[in-house]
Design goal:
Elements: H1 3-8, H2 24-33, E1 38-47, H3 53-72, E2 76-81, E3 87-92, H4 96-112, E4 119-128, E5 131-138, E6 143-147, H5 159-168
Antiparallel strand pairs: 1-3, 1-4, 2-3, 4-5, 5-6
Length: 190
């Protein structure tokens, strides 16, 4: 931050971090074998909506790139806008490695095109019995956090199980230490 930014009270958005996503490649072993969570075959990247043509073009090009990659991987990509106006790239693929690669590719491409400040999170769906775990990666913080909505409950989450999961997986993934930043993604399209 420059002196002028400090004097005027402006803050800069931290650059997006994409490399920690690859930790999921090995963490899935513990998630499956030790904790019973299995990939749900879906992942997504959520972006702040584009406000000008530069960002819109970067999002469009990234969508085209990951669609081609998904086709080659025998997966599927769709663009979707959620009820809050955020843009989602949603990936469907039964191969966990492909989902990680697609999310990384989307984030890295947007970052390289100068639109990394639009990246909010990557979300990976896991399932156990009738429960759903959304493993959320915050691009700005370079850290993961769990979100487990309670089935059949309106906007309630299983905080105890989220805390246990983070404690058991702390050596596998970079976790968000500030629990107030464990934002729920209600109505997550993933």
């Amino acid at each position: 931050m420059s002196l002028l930014d400090a004097l005027l009270g402006r803050t800069r958005v931290p650059p997006a971090r994409t490399e920690p996503l690859f930790a999921l490649s090995t963490a899935i072993i513990s998630l499956e074998d030790d904790l019973g969570w299995h990939p749900g075959g879906r992942a997504g990247v959520v972006l702040r909506p584009a406000e000008d043509s530069f960002y819109a073009r970067a999002q469009e090009e990234t969508g085209e790139l990951v669609a081609l990659a998904a086709l080659e991987m025998k997966g599927h990509v769709e663009n979707q806008r959620d009820e809050y106006g955020y843009q989602w790239l949603i990936f469907s693929d039964q191969d966990w490695e492909d989902l990680v690669a697609l999310a990384h590719m989307a984030g890295q491409n947007l970052k390289e095109k100068g639109a990394g400040d639009r990246l909010l999170a990557a979300v990976f769906k896991l399932e156990k019995d009738k429960q759903v775990l959304y493993l959320i990666f915050n691009y700005k913080r370079g850290a993961f956090y769990p979100f487990i909505p309670l089935a059949g409950k309106d906007k309630e989450r299983d905080n105890a199980q989220e805390m246990r999961l983070a404690a058991l997986m702390e050596k596998e993934l970079p976790w968000e230490k500030d629990f107030s930043r464990w934002y729920p993604l209600w109505g997550c399209p993933v």
